[in-house]
Specification:
Shape: globular
Structural class: mainly alpha
Number of strands: 13
Strand order of the largest sheet: 3-7-4
Helix content: 55-70%
Strand content: 5-15%
Amino acid sequence: MIQYDFVTFSMGQLPDRAEYTLLADKVVLLLRYPRYLLLMKTQYGDEAEMLIEEILRQGKDTASRVIIRAATRLKESLKVEKVCLVTLRDKFLVLVNKQFVMRCPYPSEEKDVPELTIKEKQLYLPPDINLKGLSDLEEGKPGNPGDEGICWRVNLDRFHQDFRDQIMVSAISRRLDDNAGELLRQLLKQMYLRTEPWVATSNPVPFTELREAVRKQSSYPLLAQYVDQYLKIMEEDSSGFVSKVGDSSGGQYSLNMKTAFIQLTWATIENIVMERFGSKAARIFRLVKAKKFVEQEQIQQIAMIPAKEAKLLTYKLLEENFLQMQELRKSLASNVPNKTFFLFYIDLNQVARMVLEMCCKALYNAMTRREYERSENRRMIEKQQRIELITLNMKEQGATSEQLAEIEEMLTPPEQALLEKVRIMINRLNEAELQLDETMFILQLYLSYQI
C-alpha cells in the first residue's frame, strides 16, 4: 500500500517505531484511473496510455521495466513481432517533460525510521536509458539499461490540473460558444508561462500575447477576428472567470480559479436541488442565494409561490441542510416584548461538504449494486462469455453461418433478454459513477480553494 501511495509512514512517539496513515482520498482515486488513461490516449496516443497504465498497475517502477512491459502488451494487441523501443522511450520522456510522471523519493537511512525525500530539481529529471541494454532485456538477455534504482510514479495533480481546465473550458463553451472556450484554453496556456498552476488568481496576461497565440490557431478564424470582443464579453460575464486588471500592452487579464469554482459549485448544488425537490424548491434556493438573508414572508412574496407550499418547501430545504436559519431578536421599546426574526441563508461551505458526503454514499451504493447484479447473474454472464469464445474460435476455423447461428442459439430468448437488462443496468451504474466522480471533483476543488 505504501508502493501505491495509499499509506504514508512517519516517526511515531517512540523513535524506532513508525506510524502509518491511510490516505482515504488516494484510495477513492482508483475510480478515476480510467479517466487518466482516456486523457493519455486522447492527447498522446496508445503508447502513452500503455506506459501510464503500467505505472498505475505497479504503483511505481523503473522506466526500463515499464517500457518493456508496455512493448510486450503492444505486441500482443497489435499482433506484431516487434515494436519500436525508441518510440516508447521518447514517449516516456515526453510524459516526464510534461510532468505526468515524476521520480519517487529516496529513503534516508540516517534515522531509525527512514524518511522518503527528494530534491525538487530532481523530480522531473529525464532518465538516461541505454537502448542497447533495453533491447537486450526485451529479448531476454542480460542487459543494463542504466536506470536501475530510479523509480517513477504518476503525478496525479498534473492530471487533475488538466481535468480542471477541461471543466472550465467546457463551462464557458456552454455558456457562450466554442470560440470563447478556445479563448479560455489559450488564456490558460499563457497563464502557465507566468503563474503556478494551483493559485486562486493568475498573474496578468497581456492582450498582445494572447492575441498572437489565438492567431496561430487557424481552426478558429472568427475568434482571431473578434478576440477583443470575446474578451470583453467574458470580462463582463457574471461567472467571473476572467477579469481585466490593467490597461498596459492593450489590456491585461487574469483568470479567477477560485471564483470560477464558486460559480460551478453553486450551479452544481442548484441542479441537485432541482432534481431532488423540483423547480419551485430550486427557485426558493436561488432566491435565498441572491438575497443572502431573507425572511419566510419575503420568500412567499418574491418567489410567487402559494404561502403554504413555499413554507413547506423552505422547511424541507432547511431540514435537508440546503438552507440554514439564523434567529435575530430586536427590541422595539422598553415596555414591548422583544420581536424575533428568523432569517434563512445558505452556508456554501457547509452545503458543499454535505453534498460531497452524499456523493460518497451514492458512489458506494452504485458500486454495491453493480457487484450485486454481477454476482446474481454470474452463471449467465459466464455462459455468454463461453459462447462468444466458442463463436470466435469457430470463425477463425472458417465455420459456416449456420454453424455460428446454432452456437448462438445456446442462449435462449429469455436468457438474452435478461442479459440485456443486466448489461443496461451495469452500464447505467458505471455512468452514474463517472458523473458522481465529476461532481465530487468540482466540490473538492471548491473546498481546496477555500483553505
